[in-house]
Amino acid sequence: MSSFAGRMKEYPTVSLDRFDRENLLSRAYFLSHCHKDHMKGLKGPILKRKLEFSRTVRLYCSFVTKELLLSNPKYAFWEEYIVPLELESPTQISLVDETSGEKEDLVVTLLTAGHCPGSVMFLFEGSQGNVLYTGDFRLAAGDASRIEHLHSGSRVKDIQSIYLDSTFYDPRFYKIPTREVCLNGILELVGNWISQSPYHVVWLNCKAAYGYEYLFTNLGEEFNTQIHVRSLAMFKKMPEILSYVTTDRRTQIHACRHPKDEEFFQGSRLPCGCTASDGTPLRIISIKPSTMWFGERMRKTNVIIKTGASSYRACFSFHSSYSELKDFLSYLRPVNIYPSVIPIGRTLTEVTQIPQKTAPPVPVEESLPLAVTDAQPVARNFVDCTESNDEEEDEDQQEEEENAEKGDTKLTKEETGAIKESERNKEPEKKDTEVPGSPNPPKWEDFFTTDTLTDSQNSLNSQLQSCCSVPSPAPSRLTGSQTPELFSDEGETPDNDENFSLTLSASLSNHSSQNLDSCLPDTLILQPEQGGREQGDKRPSTVAQEESNDQKELSESQVSSDYDIPCTPESKTPRPDELSQLYRKLASGEDVIRKRD
DNA sequence: GCGATCAGTT
DNA sequence: CACAACTGATCGC
C-alpha cells in the first residue's frame, strides 16, 4: 500500500496520488490509477471548494482512469477539472500560483504502468531535472528499454529521481512468474474444468479492485463466454472489456462478489446464488488470484496451487518483482530512488538499505542501479518520501541520505565502471524505428496501454482494442454453456467434485535461463517438465497440492524465497538442486547460512 | 449523522 | 501469505 506523501522533492507544487493535508495547496494534481490507496483525500470537501475557486488547478490522468473515477458518483464533481492525457504524449503544464501569479512550466508524459486499467507512470521534465513517478506498476524485465520517452535519441535520459513502487523491493520476492505464464496456468485450469459439463463452473475469487480485467477478457476470448460480475457501469465506455463481462448469471465463469462470498462457497453456492435450473447441482471450483514469489535460483515455479478439495490459488501480481525492479532501476540508473511502499514486515530504514545490506550477492552485471551518468558520478541515494516524514522531511531525509552513503557495500569506482560497460552493451535496440506497440503484433500487455482517444471519440473503444487478445491462441474449448435455460436463480447446494485433476504443467521450463536481461518473448510453457532435476517431482501436473503431504515441501518453497529459509541447510537432506546451489555458494565463498530477519 | 481512522478479515 | 478493499468500532465535528 502506498505511503507516498504526495509530493516530489523536485517539483513540490504538484501532488500525486495524495490529495489531503499539504497537498491541498498544490497547483496541479496527478492520479496514476484508480485504486483507493492512491486517492486519499480525493473526495474531500476542502479540495472541492478549492477547485470551485480556481481557474488553473486541474487533475491529470489517463482517459481510462478518468472514466473509472467518474463512474463513482462520489468523484463526479471532478468532471470539469480533469484533463485526461494521452499516453506517450509529452504535454506542457503551467503551474500557476494563483495568488502571486508566479508560474513554472513542466512537461509531463504518461507511460504505461501495467498495474490496472488506465494505470500510468508520470515522467516529469522541467527545471529540476527528469523525475519519474511510477505509481504502482508491473513491467517485465527489459520493458524500460522499449519505452520511447525514457530515451533521448539512442541514450537513456538522465533521471534525477524515481519515486518507486517498492511493494516487492525485497529479495524475498525475487521472482514472480510473468503475466503470460500466470494467465496460461489459469486458462488451463479453467478450461479443464468447464469443459467437463455445463454444470462445471468456476468462481474467480478476485478482490474488489481494478486489475483483473485482462483475466476476464482473456478467459472470455478463450472460452467464448462472458464473466459474471456485479456491475458493468464503470466499463460502459470500454467496449473491449464490456463485451467480456455480464451481469447475467448464466455463465460458467463468475467473478461476482458478495460480502459473505467465502461462506457461500463453503456452502457450495456461488456468491450470486446461481444454480442450474434443472436442479442439477453446480460443480464449483474457486480460483483465488494471489501473489506467489520464488527465490532467485528456484527452478520450479508452479503457478497454480491446489488449496482444498475445490479451491485453488493462481499466481497473479499487480506489482513488479524484485528482479523486475532491479532490471528497471539498473537500466534507468536514477540519482535518487524514493520508495513509496514499505514491503510487508519491513521498516523504511530496511528498505533503503536493502540494496546494501539485504540483497543476495549477484553477478556484477545484475547489480543494483548505480546512479552514475557519464558526466557526473554520483552516489546513489535511497531516500524516504513517505508520509511519516512529511513534516520534518528535510532532517530525516538528510539522515536517510547519510545512511545510504554510509552503506558498507557501496560500490567502488572500479565496480561502477564495470557496470557502466555492461549497461552500455544493452543499449536499447533500434529505438528510432521502434515505436512501442506499433510494428509488433498486439501483445496483451497493451491492455494496459489504453490511451489513444481522439477528441471526437466518445468511447474508449479504440484504446482497448488489440488489448484483449489471447497471446497464443489455444484450441478453443466451446462448451455449449451459453444455453440460456441452463441456470436459474434459485439457490441450491451442489456437490463439489473432488476427482478433478489437471494434466499439464504450467511451471516455468527448466531451460528458461536466469538471465533477466533477456528480451526474448516469454514462451508459453504449459508442458510437462522435461527430465526434471528434481527427483521428488515426477508428476507432470501443473498443480501443487498444498494439502498433500508429499507435496508439502514443494509448495512451501513456492511461497518463500530461498533467502528466507529459517533452518540451517544441514537440518534436512537437501534435494539435488539445493545441493548444487549450496556447492555454488560455497565455491564462491558466499555464506550458506543466512540469519533470519 | 457524517466522515476519518484503525484494526481485523478476506 | 503480503493486494486492496471492506467491515465494524471508535472518535470528533
From TrEMBL:
The GO biological-process annotations, alphabetized, read as: DNA recombination; double-strand break repair via nonhomologous end joining; interstrand cross-link repair; telomere maintenance
What segments bear the compositional bias annotation Basic and acidic residues?
A: 404-434, 531-540, 587-597
Renumbered to this chain, the Low complexity biased-composition regions fall at 456-469
Which keywords does the record carry?
A: DNA damage, DNA recombination, DNA repair, Endonuclease, Exonuclease, Hydrolase, Nuclease, Nucleus
Q: Which domain of life is it from?
A: Eukaryota
Any Pfam family matching the protein:
DRMBL
Q: Give one GO term, molecular function aspect.
A: damaged DNA binding
Q: Polar residues bias: where?
A: 499-517
Q: Name one GO cellular component term.
A: nucleus
In this chain, composition skew of type Acidic residues spans 387-403, 487-498
Which compartments is it annotated to reside in?
A: Nucleus
Mainly localized where? nucleus
Q: List every stretch annotated Disordered.
A: 387-597
Q: Reply yes or no: does the keyword Hydrolase apply.
A: yes
Q: Where are the transmembrane segments?
A: none
Q: Which residues form a coiled coil?
A: none
Give the DNA repair metallo-beta-lactamase domain ranges: 240-343
Q: Which PANTHER family match?
A: DNA CROSS-LINK REPAIR PROTEIN PSO2/SNM1-RELATED, PROTEIN ARTEMIS
What does the similarity note say? Belongs to the DNA repair metallo-beta-lactamase (DRMBL) family.
Protein name, UniProt field: Protein artemis
Where does this protein come from, organism-wise? Answer: Dicentrarchus labrax
